[in-house]
Automatic annotation (TrEMBL):
Coiled-coil stretches noted in the UniProt entry, renumbered to this chain: 329-356
PROSITE patterns in the record: HAMP, HIS_KIN, PROKAR_LIPOPROTEIN
Membrane-crossing segments per the record: 12-32, 120-143
Main location: membrane
Protein name: histidine kinase
Catalytic activity: ATP + protein L-histidine = ADP + protein N-phospho-L-histidine
Annotated organism of origin: Sedimentibacter saalensis
Length: 441
């Protein structure tokens, strides 16, 4: 019920309730008035008195009239005056004769008190009006107290809270109080407060991220840029005085530019993923064939560094998963590169294991490197996290695993790591199986 309907209903109920209660009081007033006055006021008839006279002697007197009063009554009857007034009361009088069998005659005089109906109704109407006003005021006060509690006070509180929002105080929750639209307004303002708070928090995080990215990438770019300048200065200053030295200096300068290019590409890719500006072209892919092709592309690099790359397929049959082929290849490449940096020559190996659960395909990248410490493990997917397994190795931008996490989660998958110092590390990815009819839940 909205406020307009509520106010209208309250007004109608107050009016109806006041009329009903006033009517009850009016009936009670009439009932008790007639009982107390032993009369029927609405018919104009009051109390009745009877006087019985025998031979000028009063035999019966219901109202204890004096002999003088009775003589005045008899006098009025003798002159055909049917009314008698005494002590501001007026009586209609009548006489009847009653003869007994023994011949005794009795005069029966009846006096009926005459009541002024106009006076009664004036007092009755006055009573009804006063009662109506009192009941109406009481009912209105009760209703207004409810309105004060459920409408006025909540609106006042909302005004105070919106003033706090205006000056930037966003921590106090706005309670849901009041009727109808007032309650809905409180809910809307609370949602606005939360959205505003989240927006400010997000903006602060964006600013912090921007500053952190600028600081980190500046630090990471400084070393290769300094090296490139040193090699070029060596050529220009004649330090490289032979063709072989010049070639060596220039080759190293080119390698450093490639490193810078990789860092910039990683930074741009991560920024797009972080701001949800990267679209995913999802296709249904045979995971076994896909991983075979990825391993084939990377195997030459592992062989060149005398490191082993092993593929173990523990799937019972071929399964399809939904992925963006190009972007997921970046995930595989980043994880392999990260593992390759952290395993030793000759003895180092990376095992890529495919297995399954009821609903998912699991891809595990397990190396036999020195492992990741318990302190570093929760943070290895953070951008630019300073751990031995990430930033502080040659050619790393510090964004590889952060990019991998963004892409996997963008494909509705999960990625996590398990490790123990001295026993290598495992990066594990879970992707949902799909069939022709769709995703297996």
């Amino acid at each position: 019920m909205n406020l307009k309907q509520r106010f209208l209903t309250q007004s109608i109920l107050i009016l109806i309730g006041t009329i009903v209660i006033t009517g009850c009081f009016g009936f009670a007033y009439d009932y008790f008035y007639n009982i107390l006055n032993e009369s029927h006021a609405t018919s104009g008839v009051g109390q009745t008195a009877v006087v019985v006279i025998e031979d000028d002697n009063i035999v019966y007197n219901s109202e204890d009239f004096t002999m003088l009063q009775i003589k005045e009554v008899l006098m009025n009857l003798s002159v055909d005056n049917d009314y008698y007034e005494y002590e501001n009361k007026r009586y209609s009088i009548s006489e009847e004769n009653f003869i007994k069998q023994d011949g005794v005659t009795y005069r029966i005089i009846t006096l009926n008190e005459v009541i002024c109906v106009g006076d009664y109704y004036r007092s009755f109407i006055t009573f009804v009006i006063i009662t109506f006003l009192i009941i109406f005021v009481i009912a209105s006060i009760i209703v207004q107290k409810q309105n004060l509690k459920n409408i006025i006070i909540p609106i006042t509180d909302l005004k105070k809270e919106t003033e706090k929002l205006r000056i930037g105080e966003l921590e106090t929750a706005i309670t849901e109080k009041g009727y109808g639209e007032v309650r809905e307004l409180g809910v809307a303002i609370e949602q606005l407060r939360l959205q505003l708070k989240n927006s400010i928090y997000y903006q602060q995080k964006v600013d912090e991220n921007r500053k952190f990215l600028i600081s980190s990438i500046s630090h990471d770019l400084k070393t290769p840029v300094t090296s490139i300048r040193g090699y070029i200065d060596g050529v220009l200053d004649g330090v490289a005085d032979t063709d072989e030295k010049k070639k060596y200096y220039l080759s190293n300068a080119i390698e450093k530019t490639k490193m810078i290019n990789t860092m910039i590409e990683d930074l741009l890719l991560y920024s797009k993923l972080d701001l949800n500006q990267m679209t995913f072209e999802k296709d249904k892919v045979d995971i076994i064939k896909y991983m075979d092709s990825c391993i084939e592309e990377c195997s030459e690099e592992f062989n060149r560094e005398n490191k082993r790359l092993i593929f173990e397929n523990n799937l019972s049959t071929s399964y399809f998963v939904t992925m963006d082929v190009t972007k997921f290849k970046r995930v595989v490449q980043n994880i392999m590169d990260n593992a390759k940096r952290n395993i030793e020559k000759h003895e180092g190996q990376l095992r890529i294991i495919l297995r399954e659960t009821n609903s998912s395909v699991i891809i595990e990248f397990k190396d036999n490197g020195k492992g990741i410490s318990e302190h570093d493990l929760p943070h290895i997917f953070d951008r630019f996290y300073r751990a031995d397994t990430a930033r502080e190795v040659k050619g790393s931008s510090g964004l590889g695993l952060a990019i991998a996490k963004q892409i996997v989660e963008g494909l509705d998958g999960r990625i996590w790591a398990v490790s123990e110092i001295g026993h290598g590390a495992s990066i594990i990815i879970s992707l949902k199986k799909v069939r022709d009819e769709g995703v297996i839940i």
